[in-house]
Write a structure and sequence with these properties.
It contains 2 helices and 2 strands; from the N terminus they run ββαα. By secondary structure, the protein is an alpha+beta fold. It has one domain. It is globular.
Length: 55
């Protein structure tokens, strides 16, 4: 259905692709996954995401 969300368990995602880049997640722990995802997030939200991830 157009506009429907697509989800999968976090452990099954080896790669995440956005319009801002590609994150390789395979073999990374929770912190490494968070850092990789933040680097490909919309630049407007990276600072807040990083702040929340480290608090």
């Amino acid at each position: 259905q157009p506009g429907a969300a697509v989800t999968s368990p976090r452990g099954l995602a080896d790669w995440v692709v956005t319009e801002h880049g590609v994150a390789a997640l395979r073999g990374k722990g929770e912190r490494g996954r968070a850092e990789a995802l933040i680097t490909i997030a919309d630049p407007r939200f990276r600072e807040e995401l990083l702040s929340r991830a480290t608090s």
